[in-house]
Amino acid sequence: MSVEQTLSIIKPDGVEKNLIGEIYSRFEKAGLQIVAARMMHLTKEQAEGFYAVHSERPFYKDLVSYMRSGPVMVTALEGESAIDKHREIMGATNPANADPGTIRKDFAASIEENVVHGSDGPETAAQEIAFFFGDGGVCPRTR
Ligand code: ADP
Ligand code: MG
Q: In what helix (H) or strand (E) does residue 76 lie, and over which residues does it extend?
């Protein structure tokens, strides 16, 4: 086990459903600490850039438009095995396949509108955190 950071996004449907506190509470109860947070409306360039890895997928255009359909909460979280822990709390991409008690099982409407994003590995976590919080945007938890 090691302390990691991961990038977490409450997507526009999660913000619209007023789930920010509920979702952060689940992360905090699992021992993850918020080290950066920002509400923002993604530009087209930001949404396209963030999901560039999916640019060849048939759902890419819709995904970019969904991610720009309202404000998102972007957060960096830190803790033991933060990347896997965060993905476990989110649940599977398709809510139909998500385990009971996960965020996506409880709140997601579809495989696209699935409430949350979480990094999928150490390299993407570092890239994604730098994408939103580069240049000193992450705050050390000194208490
Ligand atoms: P995850 O968010 O679980 O890491 P992916 O990285 O595979 O999943 O996909 C990124 C996002 O693209 C998903 O969270 C979802 O919003 C959307 N998405 C994934 N697969 C589909 C699909 N088959 N149809 C529509 N949207 C999809
Ligand atoms: Mg992914």
A: strand 72-80
Q: Is 117 a catalytic residue?
A: yes
pLDDT at 44 over 80: yes
Between the CA of 111 and the centroid of ligand 1 the distance, in Å, is: 6
Rounded Cα gap, residues 38 and 111, in angstroms:
25
Contact 111 CB / ligand 1 (< 6 Å): yes
The pocket of ion ligand 2, defined by CB under 5 A, consists of 120
Which pLDDT tens digit goes with each residue over 56-97?
A: 999 999 999 999 999 999 999 999 999 999 999 999 999 999
Instruction: Note the pLDDT of residue 1.
Output: 76
Helix axis angle for 82-90 and 20-29, nearest 10°, is 130
